[in-house]
Design brief:
By secondary structure, the chain is an alpha/beta fold. The protein has a domain of about 120 residues: Beta Polymerase, domain 2. It contains 5 helices and 9 strands. Strands 1-2-5-4-3 form a 5-stranded mixed beta sheet, with helices on one face. Strands 6-7 form a two-stranded parallel sheet. Helix 3 links the parallel strand 6 and strand 7. The longest helix is centred in the middle third of the chain and has 12 residues. The radius of gyration is 40 Å and the shape is elongated. The termini are far apart.
Amino acid sequence: MSVVHSAPKFASNDGVIEALSSALGSAILSAQEQHGEVLLTVKRDTIVDTLRTLRDDHDYQQMMEIAGVDFPERAERFEVVYMLLSLTKNHRIMVKLSTDEATPVPSITGLWPNAGWLEREVFDLYGVLFAGNNDLRRILTDYGFEGHPFRKDFPLTGYTELRYSEEEKRVVYEPVELAQDLRQFDFLSPWEGGDYVLPGDEKADGPPDVDKPKVTEGPKDTGAGPKAEKKAAEDTPADPPAMDEPGKKEDDK
């Protein structure tokens, strides 16, 4: 027996933009389809009424995610994106708005309580403020963290680091301490060589002259000669002691 579901297996975007644009009216700044999804850009102050209309009148029951985007070159550098899901239509839409560092966005925690955690995440990582969220605290970074890591102008390196201090029971900032000096490495082919001098090479006269290999052209290069032969004769005893033959026992001597 086959089960027939009310939600279609594949939901089409046909007619969605026209229907939602008519329902939302002047709250919409633009409506378009991107990457197979409907994207609505709305006025910041109308976000609560817009999402309530989508939930109550157009069956987008679930608010799945809130995300932030940073465009530093814009006057309103941040975009807040809301992702909605209709279970009865098996359809998703995205609603977004723009804001700056000082202008808060109306909170939608009155529509979906789970938005409180998601708004805290956007605040923590981007610094976007949400008016009406009564628990707007950091949620991913440590207590005492300074700055917002997902901003595109957030420094990736610096001269201070933070850690949790067991003694002080809080996050503390300290100067960066490296175990060794910063070293630069290159990854040239070993057959090409690098433009540097390895430790110890500064004591040498330079690389070996491979075109002129060292040869023994005279006795002084090998140490041989009359003096060496005389020295060897003096060190050699006249009658060396006799050595036992291999395998001969003591009784046979």
